[in-house]
Design brief:
single chain; 297 residues; alpha+beta; Trna Endonuclease, Chain: A, domain 1; 2 domains; four-stranded mixed sheet; 12% strand; elongated
Amino acid sequence: MKLTRISYKKLLQSIGKTIETARQNTFRNINQELVKANWEIGRHIVEFEQNGKERAEYGSELLSRLSRDLRLAFGKGFGRRNVLDMRRFYLCYQKWQTVSAKLSWSHYILLLGISEYRARMFYTKHTLSDNWSVRELEKQINSSLYERYTLSKNKGKTTLKKQKSNQKIIHSDIIKDPYVLDFLKINQTSISEKQLEQKIIDNLQLFLLELGKGFAFVGRQYKISIKNKHFYIDLVFYHRILKCFVLIDLKTKPVKHSDIGQMNLYLNYFAAEENVINDNKPIGIILSTDKDEILVE
């Protein structure tokens, strides 16, 4: 068989994929074993405490002794804080069945820093369902997603509520209010709508995370034509759960009545021209720094 450049390239790509898969599987297995080992260590410490011995709280003699002896026997990774985290890990997840092997130890370190049980379970559930990385989880915690979710729920608007199979999902269960776009790092006192749009596109992955679950990006400056007049919608998404288009208009100045009228024009166009069978009515979002409740209503 004659070795050509193309056949050799395919060979190299196949071997590369095999190596990459093996590395990923190895990392996954190592992570699972690490999480399991840390949970077991925490269990041993708590069971020791329950037998009437000293409590392994931060600063205790037991914790210092454990840390010192474990480091002597097994090397780094057993600082006093690390051992305390292992104990806290078991106390927070006392049933091994509630521990997901999909999450890394770094994920759990962030989750352990959340004292409120419901908040911790909230972030645990959405890290799993939305496949958040450690960085994404930290970003959502820092943006107070749970607190905003709770506030929205108290106002009668749930953002990430899971519906029962016999309940109809409505847009108020999906659309957030407010959105936090601190990841754009806008330092200017004023920014144009075009600049804001570009910053969102440059950080599209983080913007999709802030929008929530189910959003798929369709396009920017989406052109529609009505009676030989051309209009451009800033951002267009499709929501796979609501089964509808979501149109976003960016405003860096106070929203005017004409802005709402223009959005209604876009929505009517999409309902008539872009929707296909089984699509629901489109949703329009005017994203601005503030809103006049009466005007918006």
